[in-house]
Amino acid sequence: MHEDGQRQLLKYEDGVYRLSKSDVTFSQAALLQKIEATPTDFSNNVVTRPLTEEWLFNTVAFIGGPSEIKYWAELQTVFHEMGIEMPIVLPRLRFTYVTPKIEKLLASYDLDLADMIANGTEAARQRFVRAQASEEVLVDMQQMLDQQHAFYERLQAQLNDSEDQRKLLKKNHQIQTHQYEYLQSRYLKNIERENEISMRHFHLLSQTLYPMGGLQERIWNPLQLLNEFGMEMYTSSTFPPLRYSFDQYVIKT
């Protein structure tokens, strides 16, 4: 309900209708009178909006994304209580566009398309970087870190009687551990720099198949494809009509 220049939640408490951001209350009769006089002061919340929509414009099916489907599933009891028929809830068709260049990169790095769409490319990128590094160097670095932990535990056992010494040891251990981890991190970062072209490839794969950590369809705009492939992109002669499916469609451009 709109009151005092702001939208407020209307709640029923202790026999009256109360606004969430003020002390204003209404009896049922007063509220019904206000609805009749100024209906534009009232609006639906996130739960009642679907109810009102289906009451006014009953639809055969609601088609939505994964989050919307999950949300609508929670409304089934509410629809039943209000005596409003709930529409069939269906997930929307899911698409991923794959260009010849992306196909070539996937083959070049022996990557699985379905895995890249579902989980992204970061794990594959890290595997690639470690594969270019010296396994002997990585093992030695890990041994250095393990030895540091063992050294810390031995000294800690010998300094049980001194709180100040234990604090000093702990601080020193944190510094040493950070340095070992920094050494390994910088070593791998240098490997990435030495393989800059491959890093660009993985970045392109990520931006195409797993943009911003999610599905392409949730990030990309159709205008991107129109700009790249022209106005014929969405004609039936370019891509034949698709059948409804719960699977992810891969469209090769």
Automatic annotation (TrEMBL):
Residues 2-93 form the Bacillithiol biosynthesis BshC N-terminal Rossmann-like domain. Residues 95-252 form the Bacillithiol biosynthesis BshC C-terminal coiled-coil domain. Pfam families: CC_BshC (PF24850), Rossmann-like_BshC (PF10079). The keyword Coiled coil applies. Keywords: Coiled coil. Residues 145-172 form a coiled coil. The keyword Iron-sulfur does not apply. This is Bacillithiol biosynthesis cysteine-adding enzyme BshC. It comes from Staphylococcus pseudintermedius.
